[in-house]
Amino acid sequence: MKISEIKVFVTNPGRNFVTVKVCTDEGVYGLGDATLNGREMAVATYLEEHVAPCLIGRNPQDIEDIWQYLYQGVYWRRGPVTMAAIAAIDMALWDIKGKVANLPVYQLLGGKCRQGVTVYAHANGETIDDTLDKVAECIEQGFKAVRLQTAIPGLKETYGVLGDKKDYFELQGNRPLPPEQEWSTAKYFKLVPELFERARERFGDQVHFLHDVHSRLTPIESAKLGKMLEPYNLLFLEDASIAENQANYELIRQHTTTPLAIGETYNTIWDCKDMIQNQWIDFIRVAATHAGGITGVKKISDFAAVYNVRTAPHGAPDLSPICFAAHAHLNTATHNFGIQEFVGFGNEACQKIFKHDFKLDNGMIIVSDAPGLGVEFDEQQAEQYQYKRSYLPVSRLEDGTLWHW
Ligand code: CS2
Ligand code: MG
User: Fold this and answer.
1) What is the pLDDT of residue 168?
2) Ligand 1, pocket-test mutation among 237, 242, 285, 318, most atoms within 8 A of CB
3) Is residue 389 part of a domain?
4) Where is each Mandelate racemase/muconate lactonizing enzyme C-terminal domain found (predicted)?
């Protein structure tokens, strides 16, 4: 069997998705997700110009060798563009292997470790009351874990909160350039402990709570927040601080027992090796699309298992249903899986383009038993939703100083 063609699609059913189709001379094909929010065309070009020509004629069954060829065999290792491209090819090859074997990918990864994949839902509100009402809806729907985010009083916009009210482009002000948002740690600190205090008052221990800081705090501020939130028993506090310097997490860890999670922007084990090895974190949030596919995430998960770190893959709406499927297979077959972020199956257009039979049942995703990854991609539908340039917002302090993402 030989790889005969590699096609790259950029489509926008409300969000941009980069989809890769690896075709073979035997008719069987595989799909992969290469979406890199705000940098989609860089990955599409990297794949078309630099990756695809090297793979034509190779045996698609040689997944590990092709992964190493694209990673180790290249002078310019690592980085989000390279690793998203490798990820998409890798997912597509696992998809092909599953179809050839007539087995779902989780069977190729070792089989089921659990009956379903526990997920956490999002409750985003303009006020604390609004957020808590949304938590109630999530509990009603059967979710066992919920991430709580509330708009910060006194700031014009809060990242991640407008998501429920507007579409992605409205959220960005329909501007072709990155929108700018304010940040104030003082204002945020007034809000967050009250949010979780009231959440525990209203819901007791019915569900796990989580919270995403989106890296807006310095390490010592994160340490303080972790301490403030200890009484409310979070499952984890996500992206408290940036960790380009991984030792930032040593500082945070010394001060708080609130469990810590990080990793949605990480591309390889090297971005999180020290944090895992020193047990400064509890959950590693790498996504198959951004950390070298199923092969990349599997390597990181196995390393993390040695240090009692569990996986909690990123599950934002800017990862396509193909990545969602890759995670569902990995999570089903990975012993040290912790929890999966889940924001629904996408809008109507998205569901018309990407078809699958994954189910949500009582707060758990039940993996598909279809051969391969279990997702179909409708090319005609995809063509109707053209790429639209889009950016994530930029963060500034109230005096205009550019601030952390
Ligand atoms: C967030 C994401 O889901 C999350 O945890 O951090 O919404 C993230 O901001 C986006 O995926 C950025 O592309
Ligand atoms: Mg996050």
Assistant:
1) 62
2) 318
3) no
4) 128-259
For residues 97 and 125, membership in a common domain is answered with no
Residue identifier of the C-alpha nearest atom 6 of ligand 1: 214
DSSP string for 256-272: --S-EEE-TT--SGGGT
* pLDDT score recorded for residue 399: 97
For the chain, residues with pLDDT lower than 70 are: 162-169, 171-175
Q: Total structural domains in the chain?
A: 2
Strands (DSSP E) found in 100-142: 117-125
Angle at Cα 287 formed by Cα 285 and Cα 292, nearest 5°?
A: 125
Is 301 close to ligand 1, i.e. is its CB under 6 Å away?
A: no
My answer on whether 143 and 286 are in the same domain is yes
316 lines ligand 1 (CB under 6 A): yes
DSSP annotation of 235 reads S
Ligand 1 atom, smallest distance to 318 CA? 11
Joined tokens for residue 111: 């089989």
Catalytic residue among 50, 168, 208, 214: 214
- Which residue segment(s) compose the domain that 363 sits in? 108-373
Residues 83 and 192 in one domain: no
